[in-house]
Amino acid sequence: MVQVDIELAKCTGCAHCRDVCPVNVFELKPATADEFKGIVNDPGVAAKFQFRAEKSLAVNGPECIVCEACLFECEGECIVITDDEGHVHHSTYK
Ligand code: SF4
Ligand code: SF4
Asked: Is the CB–ligand 1 distance for residue 67 below 6 Å?
């Protein structure tokens, strides 16, 4: 089963992942939600991009078809996908 992880401290809430994913893996929730409690925004990412009022959750990770679209659109470079064969794919912002 494919696993989609997000390094939440680096997620800016840009929503690019949700917008490009063909199988609706991602859902944006308010950054104040319980899921994000204790998360401190990454200063390195903050130096380059604005953190919005939401963060992303990979709510349908097993649906991922590893098209890699989100990996190129993630400005926080914080999406990590482990495919069926155990290969790990990291995001690199285009
Ligand atoms: S790699 Fe997976 S999670 Fe990312 S856009 Fe494609 S299907 Fe969606
Ligand atoms: S594309 Fe990356 S930084 Fe933007 S909302 Fe999705 S996980 Fe967060």
From this structure: yes
- pTM for the structure as a whole: 0.97
- Rounded distance between C-alpha atoms, residue 42 and residue 15, angstroms: 17
With the most atoms of ligand 1 within 8 angstroms of its CB, the residue from 2, 3, 4 to mutate is 4
The per-residue pLDDT string of the chain (94 residues; one tens digit each, 9 = 90 and over) reads: 999 999 999 999 999 999 999 999 999 999 999 999 999 999 999 999 999 999 999 999 999 999 999 999 999 999 999 999 999 999 999 8
Q: Indicate which atom in ligand 2 lies nearest the CA of residue 49.
A: 3
Give how many domains the chain has, as a whole number: 1
Q: How many other CB atoms are there within 10 angstroms of residue 21's CB atom?
A: 20
CATH code for the domain in which residue 26 is found = 3.30.70.20
